[in-house]
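Contributing new records

If you add data, match the layout below exactly. Sequence lines come first and carry their own label; structure lines follow with theirs. Keep one chain per record. Anything else will be rejected by the validation script.
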Amino acid sequence: MTPEELFTAALGLGRQWRVAQCRFEGEPKRLELRLEHVPGEHFECPQCKALCGVHDTIERRWRHLNFFQYRCELVAKVPRTWCRRDGVHQVQVPWAREGSGFTLLMEALVMLLSAEMPVDGMADLLQETDTRLWRVLIHYVEQAQARRDWSTVRRIAVDETSARRGHRYVTNVLDCDGTGLLLMVEGRSSEALGCFAQALREHGGDPAQIQAIAMDMSPAYLKGAAEHFPQAQIIFDKFHVMLLAGQALESVRRQLQHDGAELKGSLWSLRGNVWNLSAERQKQRRALCLQYTKLGRAMTLRETLQAIYASPDQVTAESQLNWWCGWALRSRLEPFRALAKTVRQHWEGILAYFNTGLTSAAIEAVNGIIQLAKRMARGFKNFIYFRTAAYLRAARLKFELPVIN
């Protein structure tokens, strides 16, 4: 068996193609396999599938998997057929998809590596430009995203995350029942939910099927939900409410420090839940709350609100939350008075949590995964790259990875 016959069999070229010449040369060394079609063969017209004769050829080049440690490229004069019905068209070669500069197996390797490293790392490993690799990733990610079926989506979570410096944000929409990230759109306006409503129709769903939306108290998201999902129940989970309570406590601490209170080094003793603190920090928290009564009242308000979220049912929670709001309004602590008014304004959405138990925890986790990918890549050149990386890691896409028959 000659080297040409060996490579013909190894590449699985079929009866219409063969390796005509092998070259191992250059500096650094690389393997170049020159392919040719068998003389007299007819090829399918890409349009009507009729067998047609060869009109002319165009030379093309593809990057293939390395031959041991050496770069390997395929070069072929690709026929163009002349069809009586459809005219002249270039035939589809069996080792690469149309328009790609990589073979199918090379693209499969790129997709495999993309799950383990950022694109610039792949570019260094494969000795390719990152732009060429991004084209491969974008093709397969968009293909897999287009195939997704959202007809069973009923409950979603909506949140924003940072895209780049300068207050550039994107909106993420997540399926709360397990299919991962559904959509990422630029901005954090009400139109973000409008984009999701349109995408939902394109993926076999209908905006009327959405029963619940977990979100923060952003006026833009509330407006978008009212316009595009009027039947959906809005839910503000405990994470966002407790975040506001933590911010109110921090405002009280800062005001006391501004007024001369000795609170230096106490920041991390006063933040978060007491069971997550060391014994030393717990002791410091108790001492400061006893020493400064305003701080003690603020801490008690925060911890009482947190305890309300352990209520067994909505009726109990509503009664306790109503009592808490009255207490906060009489507390003479302006940040907590403002928080009580916010709770009153979003009463139905806050109480809905106790019936559904729906939270934004999953989307916060997805945002963390996305931000980790952004840090590993040291940022992305544009939104399309950012969205592609997010879908790769958080959308649970099912790829139809390329194979050679």
